[in-house]
């Protein structure tokens, strides 16, 4: 067992509160591991944001969702939306696969020339949930096909994120109490 695994397991036994600090302090320079394979056709569709690291572009958002569909050129259309101050806000972008062996690493572009890494680091076998992060550990999202997630599944993903060196103390659950209309 690696030192990282021992520390993560010990922190998990002590409770989730200490897990983020311990895992982050020990392993923040290790490579980010992705899932072994993503079937893009199954991944497409509507995802509800369950939790995220706070980002300025999502400040004040609730009922955040992402909808993915295939473009004719093989890229993926990304349509993010949320409610802010009672109004629906949307941002449209595109994603391209950068690791064709696994389909787990994508490059997302919303405003040229700015791009970001979108790496799928956890994925349910039935595609009911996913966790997406950036190798710099400054971005993390927990997504699900439904607006609510079972606490046991959520806690499992939080422990997994800590094991991948994300500072889980930053995670903020997304309010999903809106009657969201698919965009």
Outline:
This protein has 183 residues and is α+β, with helices and mostly antiparallel strands.
Describe the protein.
This protein has a single domain, classed as Calycin beta-barrel core domain (Lipocalin), CATH 2.40.128.20. The protein has 183 residues and is of the alpha+beta class. It contains four helices and nine strands; from the N terminus they run αααββββββββαβ. Helix content is 22%, strand content 36%. A hairpin with a 5-residue loop joins strand 6 and strand 7. The chain starts with a helix and ends in a 10-residue tail after the last strand.
Keywords summarizing the entry:
single chain; 183 residues; alpha+beta; Lipocalin; eight-stranded antiparallel barrel; disordered N terminus
Number-wise, the strands total: 9
Radius of gyration: 16 Å
Fraction of helical residues:
10-25%
Q: Which of globular, elongated, flat, extended, rod-shaped describes the shape?
A: globular
Strand content: 35-45%
């Amino acid at each position: 067992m690696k030192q990282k695994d021992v520390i993560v397991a010990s922190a998990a036994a002590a409770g989730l509160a200490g897990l983020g600090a311990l895992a982050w302090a020990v392993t923040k320079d290790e490579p980010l591991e992705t899932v072994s394979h993503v079937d893009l056709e199954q991944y497409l569709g509507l995802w509800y944001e369950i939790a995220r690291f706070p980002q300025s572009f999502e400040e004040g958002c609730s009922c955040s969702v992402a909808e993915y569909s295939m473009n004719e050129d093989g890229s993926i259309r990304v349509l993010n939306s949320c409610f802010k101050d009672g109004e629906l806000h949307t941002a449209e972008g595109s994603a391209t696969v950068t690791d064709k062996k696994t389909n787990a690493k994508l490059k997302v572009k919303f405003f040229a020339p700015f791009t970001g890494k979108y790496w799928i680091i956890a994925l349910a076998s039935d595609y009911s949930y996913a966790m997406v992060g950036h190798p710099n550990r400054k971005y993390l999202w927990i997504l699900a096909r439904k607006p609510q997630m079972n606490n046991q599944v959520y806690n499992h993903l939080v422990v997994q994120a800590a094991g991948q060196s994300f500072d889980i103390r930053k995670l903020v659950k997304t309010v999903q109490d809106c009657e969201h209309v698919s965009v």
